[in-house]
Design goal:
Blueprint (H helix, E strand, L loop, with lengths): L14 H10 L12 H10 L3 E6 L7 E3 L6 E3 L6 E8 L7 E8 L4 E10 L2 E10 L7 E4 L2 E3 L1 H4 L12 H4 L5 E9 L9 E8 L10 E5 H8 L7 H8 L14 H14 L3 E5 L7 E3 L4 E3 L5 E10 L6 E9 L3 E10 L2 E10 L7 E4 L2 E3 L16 H5 L6 E8 L9 E8 L13 E4 L1 H7 L8 H11 L6
Parallel strand pairs: 6-11, 18-23
Antiparallel strand pairs: 1-16, 2-3, 4-5, 4-13, 6-7, 6-9, 7-8, 7-12, 10-11, 14-15, 15-16, 16-17, 18-19, 18-21, 19-20, 19-24, 22-23
C-alpha cells in the first residue's frame, strides 16, 4: 500500500508524448477507419427520429414570460432563463448596450473518456443530436450534460457513462478545468471540461465510437462534424509544442493579460427582458430593430436517442455566419498567433483571450474606415494560398440555432498584422495558449475551437 503522505510527480511528462502518438494515428484506429465514419454517422441519424420545428412563443410547453420582468422562464425554475443585460465598458459610441442574455447558473459536465488500445489513446465520442445544429447530428463528448440532465431534473433516462466523471476513483484525470461559454450570449456560464482515462472494460453503446486524436483531427477538417463541446474539451489536452522561445516570456504574457483585465471597467447588470431598447418582441421572435446580432426564437424538438424524447425550448439564432480566425506569423522560426483580449458582457472576469478576429461581418457591414473591426478585412480578403486552415463549425447546438462560424488560420505579414500590434492584442505561441487553457477563464470558447484543431493535428503551422 502506498503511504498517504507519499510524494508524486507534479506533472505527467509522458502524457504529451502519448497524446502526440494518438494524434499521429489517423485514418485507422482500433475502433473504426475514418473512411467508415460518414456511413456510421448517417446510420445513427437513420436509426432515430429527429425533428425540429419553429413554433410561436405560445407553443412553448412549460415556458412563459414572467409577469413584471418579461423574462422567459421555465415553470420548474430549472434549466435556464432568457433575461436582459445592460453592459457598460467605459467611454465611446459602443461603450454601452442592452441585449437579451441566457442565464444558466448550473455548471455542466463536458467529458471525454479515454482508453488505450494497442498502446494508443482513443477517445469515446458520441453521435449526439442538438436541436440548434444545422445538420442536427454531430460528434460530441462522451458526456455532454447540464446538472439538470445528470441529476434527472427532466425525469428522463440516465446519462450514459456519467459515473466515469462524477464518481471518484473511476479513472485517471488527464484534464479538468472550468471553462467559460459564449460571453456574448451567456451570463457568466461555465462548464467543467474533463478528459478521464479508464482501464476498465467499457460497454460500447451503439451511438458511441472510439477514435484516435489523429482521426478527430481528420474530422475537424470537415464542416459541422465535431461539435463545439467536443472541441472545447480537446483544446484542454496538455499537448506538446516544440517551441524554443517566444516573443514574450510567460511572465510577460501573464502580466500583460492581468493589465488588460485591470484596465477594463466592465459593468454588466441583469435587467428585465421586457422593454429592452431596440429589441422588439413578436409572436415568434425577439429581435433587434436593425436586424443585427441575433434573435430569440422557440422550437419543438423530437429526438429518439435523447434522455427526454421530446420537448420545447427557446434558442438564440444569430443573423449570419460568423468569422473566427487567428492571424499567424513566424518570429525566429516559431509560429505565433495574434490573440485579442476581448471584452464580452457575459464573462465572469472582464476579458478573455480570443482569436484575432471574432465577428459576424453582417453586423459591421454599415461601418467604414477606422470604425471597422481591427483585422477583419485582412482576414476576409486573405488570398487562398495564405489560408492554412478553414472549416465551418457549429456553435453550441443546445442553446443556439444555426449558429456557425467560419474558422481559419490565416498567414499574415507585417503590413497587415504589425510586430507591435495595437492595444488589446499580443503575439503568443500555441504552446503559451495551451498552457493558459489549462486554467479557467483565460482563453475563450472561440479560441479553444482553433486550439483543438492544433491539438488534434488538423493543421501544422
Amino acid at each position: 500500500m502506498i503511504p498517504a503522505n507519499a510524494l508524486t510527480a507534479r506533472t505527467d511528462h509522458a502524457l504529451p508524448t502519448r497524446l502526440a502518438r494518438s494524434a499521429a494515428v489517423g485514418s485507422r484506429g482500433a475502433g473504426m477507419p475514418t473512411a467508415r465514419f460518414a456511413d456510421w454517422l448517417a446510420g445513427r441519424a437513420d436509426a432515430h427520429r429527429f425533428r425540429v420545428e419553429r413554433i410561436p412563443f405560445t407553443g412553448l410547453d412549460g415556458w412563459s414570460f414572467a409577469d413584471g420582468t418579461g423574462n422567459l422562464v421555465h415553470r420548474s425554475g430549472r434549466f435556464f432563463t432568457v433575461e436582459g443585460l445592460h453592459v457598460a465598458i467605459g467611454d465611446g459610441p459602443d461603450a454601452e448596450w442592452r441585449q437579451p442574455i441566457i442565464k444558466q447558473p448550473e455548471i455542466g459536465i463536458l467529458g471525454i473518456l479515454a482508453k488505450e488500445f494497442d498502446g494508443v489513446l482513443h477517445f469515446l465520442m458520441q453521435a449526439k443530436m442538438e436541436p440548434g445544429n444545422r445538420n442536427l447530428l454531430q460528434l460530441s463528448p462522451t458526456v455532454q450534460a447540464t446538472r439538470s440532465n445528470y441529476t434527472r431534473a427532466h425525469r428522463g433516462s440516465d446519462v450514459k457513462y456519467i459515473d466515469h466523471f462524477i464518481r471518484p476513483g473511476r479513472g485517471r484525470v488527464l484534464a479538468d478545468v472550468l471553462q467559460s461559454e459564449h460571453g456574448s450570449w451567456f451570463f457568466r456560464k461555465s462548464n467543467r471540461n474533463m478528459i478521464v482515462e479508464t482501464t476498465e472494460d467499457v460497454s460500447l453503446d451503439e451511438d458511441f465510437c472510439w477514435l484516435t486524436l489523429g482521426q478527430l483531427g481528420e474530422l475537424l477538417r470537415l464542416d459541422n462534424v465535431v461539435n463545439m463541446d467536443a472541441r472545447t474539451v480537446l483544446a484542454c489536452a496538455p499537448v506538446a509544442h516544440d517551441e524554443p522561445g517566444a516573443l514574450h516570456s510567460d511572465t510577460e504574457l501573464l502580466s500583460w493579460f492581468t493589465a488588460e483585465r485591470s484596465r477594463h471597467d466592465v459593468r454588466a447588470e441583469r435587467v428585465p427582458l421586457a422593454g429592452l431598447p431596440d429589441w422588439v418582441r413578436g409572436e415568434s421572435t425577439i429581435e433587434h430593430v436593425h436586424g443585427r446580432y441575433f434573435r430569440v426564437v422557440a422550437v419543438a424538438v423530437e429526438a429518439g436517442n435523447r434522455e427526454v424524447p421530446s420537448w420545447t425550448q427557446p434558442l438564440f439564432e444569430p443573423v449570419d455566419l460568423g468569422v473566427t480566425a487567428f492571424a499567424v506569423r513566424s518570429f525566429g522560426g516559431v509560429p505565433h498567433l495574434l490573440a485579442h483580449a476581448r471584452v464580452e458582457g457575459g464573462f465572469l472576469d472582464t476579458v478573455e483571450l480570443g482569436p484575432t478576429v471574432q465577428y459576424t461581418p453582417r453586423n459591421h457591414a454599415h461601418l467604414t474606415g477606422a470604425a471597422r473591426p481591427p483585422f477583419l478585412d485582412a482576414v476576409l480578403g486573405a488570398a487562398p494560398e495564405r489560408i492554412r486552415y478553414e472549416a465551418v463549425h457549429s456553435e453550441e447546438g443546445g442553446r443556439f440555432l444555426n449558429a456557425e462560424s467560419r474558422c481559419l488560420f490565416v498567414e499574415t505579414d507585417a503590413a497587415t498584422t504589425p510586430d507591435e500590434p495595437p492595444p488589446g492584442y499580443r503575439w503568443v505561441t500555441p504552446g503559451q495558449l495551451n498552457s493558459l487553457v489549462r486554467h479557467g477563464h483565460y482563453v475563450n470558447v472561440q479560441a479553444r475551437t482553433l486550439l483543438a484543431v492544433l491539438a488534434a493535428g488538423a493543421v501544422r503551422l
